[in-house]
Amino acid sequence: MSQENSPPVIGFSPRVRKSPFFDATRRYGCTAYTVYNHMFMPTAYGDPVDDYWRLANDVAICDVAVERQVEIAGPDAFDLVRMLTPRNLETMKVGQCKYVLLTDENGGIVNDPVLLRLADDRFWLSLADSDVLLWAKGVAHGSGMDVEIAEPDVSPLMIQGPKAAGLARDLFGDWVDELKYFWFREVELDGMPLLVARTGYSSERAYELYLRDGRFGDCLWERVVEAGRPYNIGPATPSQISRIEAGLLSYGADMTLNENPFELGLDRLVDLEQDVDFVGKAALRRIAADGVRRRMAGVEIHGPELPEVNEEPWPVEKDGRPVGKVTSCVHSPRLEKNIGFALLEAPLAELGTELTLKASFGDVAMTVVPMPFLKSA
Which of 102, 213, 285, 340 is deepest in the core (most CB within 10 A)? Predict the structure, then answer.
């Protein structure tokens, strides 16, 4: 006789850290967490579709303190940062952010952080979920460079949605209207030290408020919520729906050490001609010369709304033959269709290719379509 199991529970312990905003997330109704970068990350406040519509129509406040920072500082900081990534950083200015990849000796992806340049000799890597602090320390130790590498007391809080610009203006002043995409400014808000960046993780307007003193976590949350009431602000988690609509890949789900930038269509983040011997350069040169056997593609999954999303990659077949996997998928309420990403045999990643998804609930037809599904605001 079968018995339905209760949902699993994540246990709290000192081994997994809480963010400076953790108490606020509990107070505002967070019902589920996961572990990300050795910290608790909110994953639900209720119906994720309700959260999605708040993000699409108004403004959401999200605890993204799990985006831990690795600070690299010292006389050789710029040289080390350039060694870690295949992206050409030669023209990067102080006050600028760049989306970068970190690659290993085989060209596999270690992480895909946002890089921030705070000074000529000081950088932050704002991380996805992997142990880059240890990776950077290892590379630095082998290089003999004069750098200091540490995790500073920095915790991002994100506001995003079409009304985020108005809220940011009310909080910080008219200058935020001039803040360019992927740039930042260091400020204080009621004595709280912050770095305000025009970055985010969705197709909507977004700002990340990097709190530089965790003691102010609760104060910053309540200050933002109070200013956001006229904009119908509410708590939410980083939206899987919106990030897939925007064509934003997730480290650990859509990319790992087993994938390289060329397979993922991220060639623009690799400069093999620059005069920097970055980690993985020789391997990426070989891959570029030989070509790739797999490519990431956007897919539309036909039929009614998906009854569930994938908790693991779902196999993909063509004429009964395994040809790849769907790494992420979701139903988009705005587009009124099921969309996702699939890592496929390269010839089958062409637009219009028809495939069969072997989902957990049965076989479903799907088609390769353009990405992103929605353009960013």
Answer: 102
